[in-house]
Amino acid sequence: MTQRIITGVVAGAVFLGLAILGGTPFHILVALLVMIAMAELFKMRKLEILSFEGILATLAALSLSLPTTQYFPKLGTDSNFTLFTLFLLIMMGVMVFTKGKYSFEDLGFPFLSAFYIGIGFQNLLAARENSLFILFLALFIVWATDSGAYFVGRKLGKTKLIPSVSPNKTVEGALGGVISAIVVAVLMVFLYPKQAPNIGMIHLIILVAVFSVVGQLGDLVESSLKRHFGVKDSGKILPGHGGILDRFDSLIFVFPVMHLLGLF
């Protein structure tokens, strides 16, 4: 627990500090997170990240997540998806020269991995560019959900949520996580009303409940992946916490849904 707390404080301070700073330093941090997350996925699948498809998939994820238009304005406003498509087409072109050893089905994992990681971090950066409050709102919703689910689940949890995926999660804990997220979000709005989105309180509470549920779904998706590949954690880069995917699995789901529902 001591190791977990120290890691959480240090890693959280670095992430939040660079998030507040924004700009290129934060973009560099996100690029590192994307590369590590891709390496974790490939390792779970027992594939080499430095393989041809591993490098191309990582480049695809980076091109999708980072603000390429800012750094390469001549590529046009849709450069993220243009570059992502280019790397996908190159991966598909490899099939021609492998004499059946690299099939269309083999493209599924690297392509889906790149999209999964890339679109999540793309929306994280988009949220930061739009509003620091929105970024912090998402972070605190996820953190409050995790904490609420853990403590309520330990105290009151009886009904298993999806034991085949995550045997320790309970329905009571999940509901406790939603309530915790709502309480924290309402407090944030009361403390920083000028920075908060201009929507009614009932609307906000409904959205926060949705985001909390979506965040828990993101966590369950990663749990399902780890169970499928037979690993306990996605990585070991964060002592006591596991890998980057273990910490960002919920946010990878929450940010795109926040964008879809118009918060940024």
UniProtKB/TrEMBL annotation:
Annotated metabolic or biological route of this protein: Lipid metabolism; Phospholipid metabolism; CDP-diacylglycerol biosynthesis; CDP-diacylglycerol from sn-glycerol 3-phosphate: step 3/3
Biological process according to GO: CDP-diacylglycerol biosynthetic process
Membrane spanning residue stretches: 6-37, 49-67, 79-97, 109-126, 132-152, 173-193, 199-218
EC number: 2.7.7.41
Keywords: Cell membrane, Lipid biosynthesis, Lipid metabolism, Membrane, Nucleotidyltransferase, Phospholipid biosynthesis, Phospholipid metabolism, Transferase, Transmembrane, Transmembrane helix
Family: Belongs to the CDS family.
Name assigned to this protein: Phosphatidate cytidylyltransferase
